[in-house]
User: Which sequence fits this backbone?
């Protein structure tokens, strides 16, 4: 498998590169540290697999996954992330990812995932699979607006619907402005909108805002 690495943490990237060097059927052909960079590198290198982080600068890993899969080149995406909330996992799978592992997965887990993806299978880490199965086994309850979002993402979106800027949202929710920007990036990807205005319109139509 010709593998492209997409992660903005240099130490983790180095560790991942070293780990893949120990997997006989994997060859690292490129690296990217932004979402746009991952899309461009995938287009240029045509790797068999992209190991994709979710929290990337610029467009996030979910949106980057969607763009790469939409190219139709057959490049598969395997998400390798710190985020273990169900909404992010499901958003990644809807974007076209072939699997989802948590960072901290061991060499055997990564090797098994690469082998599964090479055969066209989907793969989940143990805790990710448990979360998905638990979600599927739960009885359907009352519908929640934008159920694909986490509670915190929904709170951020409600502030956007009310016309608040990032500084105001950060102050009201006790977050940093950078964290608010990260939340917005995930929200845009999950709702498949391109900007704040479109997100606000969707939010108000969905019943959010005052």
Assistant:
């Amino acid at each position: 498998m010709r593998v492209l690495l997409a992660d903005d943490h240099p130490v983790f990237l180095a560790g991942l590169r070293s780990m893949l060097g120990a997997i006989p059927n994997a060859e690292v052909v490129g690296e990217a540290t932004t979402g746009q960079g991952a899309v461009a590198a995938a287009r240029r290198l045509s790797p068999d697999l992209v190991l994709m982080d979710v929290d990337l600068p610029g467009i996030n890993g979910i949106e980057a996954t969607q763009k790469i899969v939409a190219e139709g080149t057959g490049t598969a995406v395997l998400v390798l992330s710190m985020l273990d909330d169900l909404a992010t996992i499901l958003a990644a799978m809807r974007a076209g990812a072939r699997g989802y592992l948590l960072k901290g997965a061991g060499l055997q887990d990564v090797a098994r995932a690469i082998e599964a993806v090479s055969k066209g299978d989907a793969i989940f880490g143990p805790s990710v699979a448990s979360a998905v199965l638990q979600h599927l086994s739960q009885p359907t309850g009352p519908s929640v607006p934008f159920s694909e979002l986490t509670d915190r993402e929904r709170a951020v979106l409600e502030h956007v619907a009310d016309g608040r800027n990032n500084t105001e949202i950060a102050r009201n929710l006790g977050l940093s402005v950078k964290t608010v920007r990260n939340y917005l990036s995930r929200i845009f990807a999950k709702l498949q909108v391109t900007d704040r205005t479109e997100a606000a319109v969707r939010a108000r139509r969905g019943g959010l805002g005052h």
Observations:
- DSSP finds ten helices and six strands in the chain.
- The first helix runs from residue 10 to 21.
- The mean pLDDT is 86.
- The chain has two domains: 2-136, 151-205.
